[in-house]
Specification:
Length: about 400
């Protein structure tokens, strides 16, 4: 996990440094450039939906124009974005249909920099509403910088390495405060929603200091690394609960009240009913051979290369190519999740992925530095052979059992 955290950090810094984000694109009348932000990419690197809706309101409904190059306007924007984030985040925890998206970020049972990168695919489709009032006065350029800054700030606080920041703990959202937010101990539930500042929690009564050892993750563990399950399992659960109740008020309660709510309970449910935490709990960590771990790390790095290529060249590619490569990345992440989970279908899925990878490599959709071309092809060929044999032996054993 430490290695994975390091890789993510390096990649994150590299991507931010090399991205073509230019605040002046969103100043005044030249805001139409926002179409270049592709909504398919994670919101850490692009905020397509939020910024597009913001620009629409700014273009059509703004009441006044705060100067984009004034210091006080920038400080004001910093405060208002952070204040809005507090409410985005609080509603994401207190309304069950919004929690269905946000729970993705809380699904990690580890707490490190890679936890910050667990982002929901669907959350940005609701959070934009909370920022729209700003569009009546604050230029999109200022908003675009501060919404990104607010998210980037929250990256470094996902760590257990920093215990206490002294007097800064009063004002800033710190690793200690955010550890509480990620906890499933009773005292941690629905606490510390702040983004860059913790003052909003202190003001609105949702602050809790770090106490007993924090146990991270969802109250009800999901025990998987499969990305689609992590992203969408809660919607399925919500649908089941919605159908379980006969009365319309209870059905609506399932959607509009807190995740722990039940009929006859307070709006946010009874936190005393959440499973007790002793501090001895271990994260879901299936045992798998070292060779497979190395395999997953190498394929993970190759996938980062594919993602980086796609991110850099997406404006020159056709929509179909972008979709195909996005599909390949999602398939790869799913397959890696299957391998880590040790699912019986993992060999077959990985075999199919290796076939696809070989084709993409052969037809030039995956670029690699010249000295690495042959080693990559050889590694992919060996992977293909290995998973082909695994699949074959699995099919044989299934056939033997059935006869
Ligand atoms: Zn949260
Ligand atoms: Zn977090």
């Amino acid at each position: 996990m430490i290695m994975y955290g390091c890789i993510c950090t390096i990649y994150f810094l590299y991507t931010v440094r090399s991205s073509n984000f230019a605040p002046e694109m969103y100043c005044g009348e030249s805001v139409c450039q926002s179409k270049h932000i592709c909504p398919f990419f994670p919101r850490l690197f692009a905020r397509g939906f939020e910024i597009t809706t913001y620009i629409y309101v700014w273009d059509n409904l703004r009441l006044l124009e705060l100067p984009w190059d004034s210091a006080w306007a920038w400080w004001l924007a910093f405060l208002v974005v952070d204040f809005s984030y507090y409410w985005v985040h609080r509603f994401a925890h207190e309304l069950n249909f919004l929690w269905a998206a946000h729970q993705v970020h809380h699904s990690s049972e580890y707490y490190n920099l890679s936890t910050a990168l667990r982002q929901s695919l669907t959350q940005q489709f609701s959070s934009w509403v909370f920022y729209l009032p700003m569009a009546l006065a604050v230029p999109p350029s200022v908003f675009a910088v501060h919404i990104q800054f607010n998210l980037l700030y929250q990256f470094w606080i996902h760590t257990e390495l920093i215990r206490d920041l002294g007097p800064l703990e009063w004002v800033l959202n710190t690793p200690s405060h955010h550890r509480v937010h990620h906890g499933r101990n009773e005292y941690c539930i629905d606490k510390n929603y702040g983004g860059a500042l913790i003052i909003w929690d202190r003001l609105f009564g949702t602050f809790a200091p770090e106490g007993n050892k924090v146990v991270y993750g969802l109250v009800h563990k999901i025990n998987t690394f499969e990305i689609f399950h992590i992203q969408f399992h809660y919607y399925k659960y919500l649908w089941r609960r919605f159908n379980r109740y006969k009365k319309i008020f209870n059905k609506l309660g399932v959607l509009w009240k807190g995740p722990s709510w039940k009929p006859g309970k307070p709006r946010l449910g009874d936190h005393a009913e959440v499973p007790e935490v002793t501090g001895e709990e271990l994260p879901f960590n299936p045992s798998w051979p070292l060779a497979l771990k190395v395999y997953v790390c190498i394929h993970g790095l190759m996938l980062l290369g594919v993602y980086q290529d796609l991110f850099e060249s997406r404006l020159m590619l056709s929509q179909l190519t972008v979709l195909m490569m996005t599909g390949y990345i999602l398939l790869s992440l799913t397959s890696i999740g299957f391998i880590i989970d040790q699912r019986p279908t993992a060999p077959m899925l990985e075999f199919l992925r290796c076939v696809l990878m070989m084709m993409l490599h052969r037809y030039g959709y995956m670029t690699a530095p010249a000295p690495l071309f042959v080693p990559i092809e050889a590694f992919v060929s060996i992977s293909l052979l290995y998973w082909g044999l695994q699949t074959f032996s699995q099919l044989i054993s299934v056939k033997k059992k059935t006869t």
